[in-house]
Fold these 3 entries.
Entry 1:
Amino acid sequence: WEMSDRVQGDPQRTTRGMVEPTIGELANGRMILVMRGSNDRRPELPSFRWVSFSDDGGWKWTKPEPWTYQNGDPFFSPSACSQLLRHSNGKLYWLGNINATNPKGNRPRYPFYVGEVDQQSGRLLRNSLRVVDDLGPGEDPLLTLSNFYAREDRQTREICLHMTRLFALPGGWEGDAMVYRIRV
């Protein structure tokens, strides 16, 4: 085994490091690594996704920076997993949570989005974003739309998202396991 260079977060910008990475390959062969950050101990910090790039197959990585939309605008995201998914249509999709305001640590973990990654810059295409699920009227705000797995259905070419609509209620966790079928 040989190890690549470490991708290390700045503890002054992300309080629990960078974990749950997802990796993809851009059109030019450059690799993209999107990571979960956190502002859990310091909620005044902006909570971002973090991104690093490799031009040599994953041996050396750029210094992590907040992941942005293609135009450079930042977006907020809670401390939660996400996934990059290469589709047979040639596009690279990202699935995860984006918040309208700065989250605190892990919450809120909704709404949940799917969007396309620009194959040249490695940035998220804002105009491609689609809400997959969100907090519904009367639902407990402790809804968790996270801890999922996505794949492409080989016959329909839909993205199949396996995710539980999980609620952290005082009496315990409850939720329904769902399969979302997303046409792209």
Note: The CA atoms of residues 10 and 17 lie 7 Å apart.
Entry 2:
Amino acid sequence: PKGLNVIQIESVTKYVEYEELVKFEIFTRQKGYPNLAQKHKENNYPDNFFESYKRYAKSLISVDNFDGSDVDTDMELELIFLENPLKNLYESKRILLEYKNRILANHKVSIMSLNNGYFKKEYVRTNNSGYFDFFFKKDTKYLIESVVIIEGSNKKKDNYAKWHSLWTSYTFKTPNN
């Protein structure tokens, strides 16, 4: 249909095997969990272990015009635009982060952009109301992502995963005018 269209994909659960704790520590610190490797040690987990993960991705695509708004697709972890990010680029936009349909306050979000061959990565945090404000530039590709890391299921069907990561992402390109 004309206007904004939201494409949403939820992946199956996948697994990554860590052979040393330092790689897990780098990953968890980068995603906003600076103490998780310490907790891993306190739990007496081995340095060689599995982590399960699942992706929750959305893309915004416009057809003929930029009218419309984002929708809450009811995924377990989700970014939701509270204002249309493709219109009125001189105004900041609010982006909400929800986990299990509840706001996720004070949580790390990364924003990657590509404009005219120039790549930029920025980090923001959601506020107490679960959103952050951001000015999007014209003619720029964006990837916004955030990760929640929880205890793994430790069940045979999940490779006895010690941790489980949920990844949400949003991709779109702003118009050039």
Note: The radius of gyration is 18 Å.
Entry 3:
Amino acid sequence: YQINPHFIFNSLNSISSLTISNPAKARDMTIKLSSFFRNTLSKNEKQKSKLREEINNAKLYLDIEKVRFEDKFDFVEEVKDECKEMEVPSMILQPLFENAIKHGVYESLDKVTIKLSCGMEEEYFKITVENNFDPDAVPRKGEGIGIKNIRNRLKLIYNQDNLLTVQKTDNIFKVNIFIPV
């Protein structure tokens, strides 16, 4: 699994700064970063995990980024308890949250809302991650590796190539993942 190296560098730089200005917050961020990496590394061997575990790890990541961006973004979770027990490919959400930070929060002057939702749609368990973005911002270069990796993993695991859709409107970027039930 790929984790953006800039996330690591930025997190460590934030912790370094906080050790002087707010040691308690630096300690909290260090613990969250450690937990995030522990969860990420432990999933390297597991092909699937509960959506609940994926969400918890994503929240650790977002909490760490919240230190950097403070009030520049909100996270909204619209996930029913029964959805949280569904099995999904491990680390399937992480690249989507990284994209939301990189292409939404980082580029926007306005507050960004990152929203996670899920539910059943026909014979699929549908997971949606969406965020608003500034359509006038100069886009950061990206190679689309995160979404490409998700698409390839879904195809390998479920032998279908229709399990990921991307929708981009005027100021909303939305990714839907469909897990066969």
Note: The chain has a mean pLDDT of 88.
